[in-house]
Amino acid sequence: MTANGKLDIDAYVHQPQQHSPTSSEASVHELVRNVWAQLLKSESFTNDDEFFDQGGTSFTLIKMLQTINLIFDTHVRPDALSEGITVSRLAGLIHKQRQSKTA
Q1: Which residue in 85, 80, 102 sits closest to 35, CA to CA?
Q2: Are 94 and 86 spatial neighbours (Cβ–Cβ below 8 Å)?
Q3: Which of 27, 33, 29 minimizes the C-alpha distance to 15?
Q4: Which of 19, 33, 71, 73 is the most buried (most CB within 10 A)?
């Protein structure tokens, strides 16, 4: 986090050892929640709440995915979230992509 309480994306991107493919599911959920909280300017959502129901827009979706892809070195696309965008679903996609890179 920065001094202003925002997610320090550079810190995550430049320290990949902290977020290796073996990172725990809980830490992936936590990072995804932090990105959402910053973009949505709210922390009052659960891991199963829909992104758009919490005030997300198409613009914030693209920004969120860019941030997530930088942090986790993934390529999650908007169409991969066709069944709804939740922290849990996104974390699951991140895990799948990261595991397939190590296989």
Answers
A1: 85
A2: no
A3: 27
A4: 71
